[in-house]
Design brief:
13 helices, globular, 10-stranded mixed beta sheet, alpha/beta, disordered N terminus, 6-stranded mixed beta sheet, Purple Acid Phosphatase, chain A, domain 2
Length: 483
Amino acid sequence: MQNRPNPNAPRRLTRQQYEALMRQRRQNRIAIAIIAGIAVLIITAVILILKPKGSPDAVTAMVEATAAPVATQAVAADSAGDSALPDLAAMTDTESAAQDSAPSGDEGGDAAALAAEVTPVPELPQAIDHVVSTRRPDGSLRSVRMRAVGDIMFCQSQLVYAKDSGYDFHNQFEMIAEQLADADYTMGNMEGTIGKYKKSQYSGYPQFNAPDVALAPLKDYGIDFLTLANNHMLDRWSGGVENTVNNVEKYGFAHVGAYRTKAEKAGTVICEVGGIKFGFLAYTHSTNSMENRGVDKEAVDLVPYISKADFKADVKKLRDAGAEVIIAWPHWGAEYVREPDSSQKKYAKKLAEAGVDIIIGSHAHEVQPMGFQSVTVDGVDKQVLTMFCMGNFISDHIVQYTDNGLILDFTVNEQPGGRFTVDNVGYIPTYTWKQNGAVKVLPSGRYLENRPTGMDDENYNRMVASYYEIVEVMGNQFQLING
């Protein structure tokens, strides 16, 4: 029987047909490549046109470069000059041993290089959240100018100086009063405990405890809000936390970060300023092993340790309670360094991705860089202002880089459609002038050419040098305000 060809079998191509098919396929691939290239060029052009001058992704790159493994670290003394309670001078950050570390070798580099990477102030508004909000009764958009200061510490010499004047601390802040008051809302980081604890004497490092009257000039001169989460918050055990919160409320401050009960910790902190509802979060990387030195477990459980935090749940709770803009205050990283370490970068990224809008850090006792992180939250692109550390606001530290700090200045503006932007970001360099037992904080830029009355050459030269050290870290990316 003769075999017939199968009509369903593929026909064999001639050589000419095969080469023609290959040419057609190559032409198709070339056409697709050309179309894709044109599309890429169009998209790139649109991005360049719409994107603010200066890449807003420098801090994003900084935090994304964080290595996953982190080494352990010891916490350095907050003030080498204080001698009270020397038995605790070797305290270490056990809480942060596995979480918060000194930077690895490839994450170092000098401060100038890091500062050069930080994002410039965008010329276009940077949306920080997509929130449908209520405008003022007259329909106008809301705007709030805010300022923030770094570590407020009352070291041993400051306590002695104040005691000689009847525990009046106003003299220590009077030269900076104008700058504190020149905002709609001024915030600060209170490091240590406030209020008499049993029969213990007031003391500086290593267990900070100041009289409640130390709060008076802060309130009188314009500070409205205090964050209380820090590595010294248990320095007078659980009773010290309760004393601190009671006294902070007694003097009329809003606050976050220290709690007397589980209900307080489970609640939310929302302050309405200029019609905008600001939600606040605060965390600390450790409590200097005080949690192992007789502090009640119930009190330890109330500490907002950053390593145990659920940022997304905390943010959601604030949003559900009506917060329109969320500010987080992490007390984090290594001390006495001018660049953020791996743990700061790691947590900065997590906070931003959780939906926090502004991050204001503390603890390093030295000024660190600031910039914007680019993240996408719930499908919305955001720029999260991230200040790694504002340095010391007031202390008796006189070692280079620790005798200065800055006042952070920024404006939160409502935009049509319910978004908010962080605009006009700037800073005021500050210097702590210590002479003859007196400790005073002042805006150093104001006195560059006309030193304060009574300031000697040594302090004047150091003040000028510290001013330029801060400018070096911040670079020319943000507005320099000389007070």
